[in-house]
Design brief:
alpha+beta; single chain; Nucleotidyltransferase, domain 5; 16 helices; seven-stranded mixed beta sheet; 9 strands; about 35% helix; two-stranded antiparallel ribbon; elongated
Length: about 475
């Protein structure tokens, strides 16, 4: 009995490991498996019927199969052979899957159809450009991007799963279980509490199979670690025991998925909700405020293309940057985040072209810094702009203007706090490599949605 080993290529689960697993700690219940869940896996023999054994061996796709090819729980859809899924189907260590009309394939087909339709409609959107244009006749593009894996719009597989080199090995315990042992580690690696990561994983991985031979939550963790810590791909590959090209493809694929699935997490709140959630520090002096807006810039690796270099050069920072607009509700929720624009673009240009103005309604109030010269744009929509007072011809501000400016400064600090927490995701605080620029719009939206998952940061009583 002790010599029984899982027959799937790359999987090393055996009867001895199964026998010892009850002595290990259960991640879910925080006690020995012997007292709660039992063994971490089981080993199942092939069916006794000739046809069943033939299908079993066909699924394993082994050149020289053993006399009695046992398979462990990890390779079954339901964790064991069932009437609906009697044969191993998951993480089989080779490219071509078993082609049978199973329900999981029907769900995969529907999911792929959704992405194809969504990608077709997205192509027509005006914000599909990665960096905003300051001149309609100038295309911000860098030829050096074309050879990097991030530059290509990596599609989900249509015909067969992708083989991720070393990723075909079936680990006994997924990496996310080993790394995310508590809230502290979860916040470190993902920027989310452990329960939020679990809920997000349940939402994103439900009925999802993109063909990579990695646990779906490991793929999610891999992507979040890139966003949170901005690790090198080689570093991530070493941590997950896969190849660097596999890491690049997984992250690119998951950025596309997360950007689509997490859009509802960046909602434009109705007025009633804004007022109901408004902290006391806003109610006293700005009870009708809709949002606070600000622009932020992130350093960009200097492009080789001269046109691209000019479009992204920021005179304020004296270097190439990516610039984006953010709108924050008084409660601290991010309600809008723009695509990335070249650092040369003005605040007014980004406000006009990002689509932000389309969300405003007559009677709204928008708070901004002095640099937002957008009174004319808001006046057309009967929206009030709240900005600090200006000094005219070296004259001192009146007492009323001074008081109002101080009040604005006291509450505008909250949008700066939101930006600081958003930039805890180091991928949007550290220098952006040119190779990552084509994905930057999606990165901004995904990070904003992840920030909102943590809840507000402005509470009653804060000054």
């Amino acid at each position: 009995m002790s010599s029984i080993i899982c027959a799937v290529r790359g999987c090393y689960n055996n009867w001895k490991k199964r026998r010892l697993s009850p002595q290990q700690e259960c991640f879910t219940h925080k006690k020995k498996r012997f007292d709660c869940c039992g063994p971490a896996f089981n080993l199942y023999p092939p069916p006794s019927t000739e046809e069943g054994r033939r299908q079993w061996l066909r699924a394993l796709n082994l050149k020289n199969p053993p006399k009695k090819p046992y398979v462990c729980s990890f390779h079954f859809v339901d964790g064991k052979p069932t009437t609906e899924h009697p044969f191993p189907e998951k993480w089989l260590g080779y490219e071509a899957p078993v082609k049978r009309p199973r329900r999981v394939l029907v769900r995969l087909f529907k999911l792929l159809s959704f992405f194809i339709e969504a990608s077709t409609s997205d192509a027509a959107e005006a914000d599909s450009n990665i960096i905003g244009q300051c001149d309609a006749g100038t295309q911000w593009e860098d030829p050096s991007v074309s050879d990097h894996s991030y530059a290509s719009n990596w599609p989900l597989p249509h015909h067969q799963p992708l083989l991720c080199d070393r990723a075909t090995q079936c680990s006994e315990i997924p990496v996310y279980v080993q790394l995310l042992r508590n809230d502290h580690l979860s916040l470190l690696y993902t920027g989310l509490p452990l329960d939020a990561f679990t809920s997000l994983g349940d939402d994103l991985t439900e009925d999802f199979n993109n063909g990579f031979h990695l646990h779906p939550r490991d793929q999610l963790l891999m992507t979040l670690m890139k966003l949170r810590l901005n690790l090198l791909q080689d570093d991530i590959a070493e941590r997950f025991h896969v190849s660097q090209p596999c890491v690049s493809k997984v992250i690119s694929c998951w950025l596309d998925l997360m950007e689509k699935r997490l859009r509802p997490y960046i909602p434009w709140l109705p007025r009633e909700t804004i007022k109901a959630t408004m902290p006391q520090c806003f109610r006293e002096h700005f009870p009708s405020l809709t949002c606070i807006i600000d622009c932020s810039e992130v350093p960009l690796q200097k492009p080789h293309n001269l046109d691209s270099r000019g479009e992204s050069y920021s005179h304020y920072y004296g270097q190439n940057t990516i610039k984006f607009l953010i709108a924050v509700a008084p409660c601290g929720l991010i309600m809008f985040i723009s695509p990335g624009y070249g650092g040369r673009c003005s605040d007014k240009f980004i406000t006009t072209n990002s689509g932000f103005l389309e969300y405003l309604r007559p009677g709204d109030q928008v708070m901004a810094d002095r640099g937002f010269v957008i009174q004319d744009l808001l006046l057309e929509r009967r929206v009030k702009l709240v900005i600090p007072a200006f000094t005219k011809k070296s004259m001192q501000l009146s007492e009323e203007d001074t008081t109002n400016t101080r009040r604005i400064a006291n509450v505008r600090v909250h949008v700066e706090r939101v930006l600081r927490r958003l930039k805890n995701y180091r991928v949007i605080s550290q220098t952006v490599p040119i190779s990552l620029a084509p994905k930057y719009d999606k990165i901004l939206r995904v990070c904003a949605a992840l920030y909102n998952l943590r809840g507000d940061i402005i509470h009653d009583g804060e000054e």
